[in-house]
Design the sequence.
């Protein structure tokens, strides 16, 4: 019996080794009689767009998960990002149902200690950073109905993406349509959940576009947990010539209401699990946020060996928060965040060894006007804090890959960042 178990283990291990081989004729001849297995099927490679060398997921020297469109748009509630990221190993999401606390994401433990929002993980949308230079990221302005797939890098990615000790999540929105289409949907569920979506797109000569609008509202299972938001996304692509193109992405998000019911102790849960914490109701705990975003990406195949890519982005965010206490319990934040990136990719061979080389520069600038006021049971009291916070980041990176043969590659990466922080008191 033990020998049979060992034989089965060896056979399964051999099949796994064959499954990782890149030579398809060797993979087909996996039967002992030498005949081709009729159950054999070769999947198309998945290209990882966030990787500077634009490689396939099997060749990227990192743990990468690719999440397809069905996880975002088919049979999903589409209220929080964690719905689509459930299949990713090592990823854990919290606060998915508390829209005033924002989603928190941890990859292999990194990000679990963030008091709010997402830290320690780089968040990108179509390669444009949602993570600000201070390392913070919110995803309340992202509508899953507009996302077609995602790439999740698990593990240290700082050499590639800077402030990303735990990994990176790149959300890729829908591509502009080649034909005219219209799409509308209505989703409803328990506890007052409703979501209305409208999507349209078309191609006019060398210009293609897609527009997505949605309205989401939810009363919630518990008292004092209702929310409401409106999100508009637009994406356009202009083919300048066969070798170059430019993409524009605009986004508007407005969430006027997101109440915070607070936490309960075990006795309160047993008495009434739907109740809200009394001080949260007393001080009207919750938040409201509006955000506008504009980005542009330019790509050009300069020569067969050189590819150039550059992007610019601008974000304006207005945030108001009421916390369940009096002193400084109301927060007002006005944020302006902008930046850009330049990258050049060279492919060639040296001493008959093929290589890919990418190098680039990126920068980000963030200005936060942060004020706090006393929370007089929901109304604004005296100002207790007024400060201008400035964050600047400039980074340079190089990524080199040598393809020794079909089964062996070497990758080298280095990155240097300069971070500047400044706080100016405006209260005194």
Sequence:
């Amino acid at each position: 019996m033990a020998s049979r178990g060992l034989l089965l283990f060896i056979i399964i291990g051999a099949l796994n080794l064959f499954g990782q081989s890149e030579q398809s004729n060797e993979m087909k001849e996996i039967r002992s009689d030498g005949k081709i297995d009729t159950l054999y099927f070769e999947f198309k490679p998945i290209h990882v767009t966030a990787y500077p060398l634009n490689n396939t997921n099997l060749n990227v020297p990192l743990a990468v998960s690719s999440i397809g469109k069905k996880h975002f748009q088919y049979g999903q509630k589409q209220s929080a990002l964690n719905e689509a990221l459930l299949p990713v190993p090592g990823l854990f999401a919290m606060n998915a149902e508390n829209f005033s606390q924002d989603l928190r994401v941890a990859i292999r433990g990194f990000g679990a200690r963030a008091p709010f929002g997402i830290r320690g993980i780089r968040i990108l949308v179509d390669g444009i950073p949602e993570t600000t230079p201070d390392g913070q990221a919110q995803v309340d302005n992202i509508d899953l109905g507009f996302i077609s797939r995602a790439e999740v890098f698990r593990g240290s990615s700082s050499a590639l993406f800077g402030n990303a000790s735990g990994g990176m999540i790149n959300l890729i929105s829908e591509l502009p349509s080649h034909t005219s289409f219209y799409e509308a949907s209505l989703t409803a569920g328990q506890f007052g959940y409703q979501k209305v979506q409208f999507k349209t797109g078309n191609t006019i000569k060398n210009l293609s576009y897609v527009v997505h609008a949605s309205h989401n509202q939810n009363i919630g299972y518990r008292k004092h947990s209702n929310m409401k938001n409106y999100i508009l996304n637009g994406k356009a692509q202009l083919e300048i010539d066969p070798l170059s193109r430019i993409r524009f992405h605009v986004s508007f998000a407005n969430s006027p209401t997101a109440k915070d019911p607070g936490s309960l102790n075990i006795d309160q849960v047993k008495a009434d699990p739907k109740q809200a914490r009394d001080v949260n109701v007393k001080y009207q705990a919750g938040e409201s946020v509006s955000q506008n975003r504009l980005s542009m990406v330019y790509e050009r195949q300069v020569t067969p060996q050189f590819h150039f890519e550059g992007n610019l982005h601008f974000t304006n965010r207005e945030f108001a928060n009421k916390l369940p206490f009096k002193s400084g319990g109301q927060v007002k934040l006005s944020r302006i965040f902008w930046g850009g990136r330049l990258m050049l990719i060279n492919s060639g061979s040296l001493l008959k060894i093929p290589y890919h080389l990418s190098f680039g520069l990126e920068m980000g600038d963030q200005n936060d006007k942060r004020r706090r006021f006393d929370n007089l049971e929901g109304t604004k009291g005296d100002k207790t804090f007024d400060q201008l916070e400035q964050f600047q980041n400039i980074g340079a990176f190089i990524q080199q890959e040598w393809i020794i043969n079909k089964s062996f590659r070497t990758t080298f990466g280095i990155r240097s960042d300069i971070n500047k922080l400044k706080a100016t008191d405006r209260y005194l």
